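Q: Here's a chain of 443 amino acids. Please give me its 3D structure as tokens.
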Amino acid sequence: MSGPKVVRIVTREELLDICRAHLARVDAALAEWIRIGKRNGCVSDAEIGAARQRRDELAALLAADRFTDIQKQAPQEEAFLRADVQARLAKLAAGQAAARSKERRARDAAATLLRTLRDAGVVVPEDIASGLAQGTGAALERGFILLAEVRNQPSSSEASDLAKRLKGDEAPRTLAVWLASQSDSTSDPAIERLDARIAELENLTDESVVYGWRQRLDEAVGADSTRRDLLLDGLEIETGRALTSARRRSAALFELEATLAELDTVIQGDSPRLRAGVEALSEDNIRARIAEANDMITRERAATSALARRAAVLEGLSALGYEVTEGMSTSWVEHGRVVLHSSSRPDYGVELSGNASGGRLQMRAVAFTHGGTGPDPIRDRDAETIWCSDVSGLQERLAKVGDGLVIERALPVGATPLKRVERTGVSNVAVTTVPAHQLRTLK
């Protein structure tokens, strides 16, 4: 297959840029994971050390030119950090909700105990009554002692009747058992679910909003059944929407930080502008900034990658005996193609076309004419065969410096007539080149 070819070029510089961007995104995700974890007390120093070690292992892959490995493992680490921080916050919220639920049940039990003692005519000291009204553990213990004293040590027939009423066949024998029975009677899955949801929102949104929801939940707990159901239904809808929105916005902020870290690897100076005032932005506005940053990354990376690909091909062909002159890379961009002469075969050369931004180029051998006269077409087959050998040589030279050339499509020798290119003195197609400072050294 020595005829026209479509090839894909991947340069070492391009791979390095991609892998540095992956590592930058991991660094940003790790920084957010540590910040959120420390702020909420849900990550340990040992876990932070382990995460940093994983990051250093990724950097080692980059240093060892293991580009494929880092392109696979870095996104996995970034995704893990994102998911893990959300899992930790959810677990923290569940614990906070459980603690509040326990406090609420303790307050309810204390109120029940105080009411039971007073209904039975027991004189409750003011400090115990105050503590029971607040649901404190110490007051519960002291109040239960009063209940036990009345139950177990009656001093009169009236007290004996009271003890029987308080005791009954299923009376609790310990404070823990009694509290458990009270908790079972006041437990409500809807309230516990809302408690957990509000606790998670507390880590994701404005405190004043969360405070209002918590007040409404407390109000619902103490309301009659009809009003309670209405209040809980309203909270279910509002907090459900709010939590979905807060989670999406949190994910967008996480993505923005990672994208800006990637942007810094290709363009310096724009990330502070895109990060400014982000705390007050809606999710849509945050995602608009992400899109803007991604557009900048795409444009800059396409331009620098295309430049590196053109330089790699021109340098490689120059080393193989093709004439590369100053300004040729610029002409390639302006005209969409460029023609190189073979110093050993003046009647033949190679045409390179394509903008290189997508990594794909067309390469084909050409014959030069002057005034309509050119080499004997019989020689064209030999010229194409030699060009095939030159392509193999170009692949080898690119591989030595970490670049790659993959032939994606090729026509056999003679499948199409060799293209004729008119050579009339100095042509803006045939004679133009890469500035010397853009060329890399082939070793």
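Q: Can you summarize the key feature?
A: DSSP finds 14 helices and six strands in the chain.
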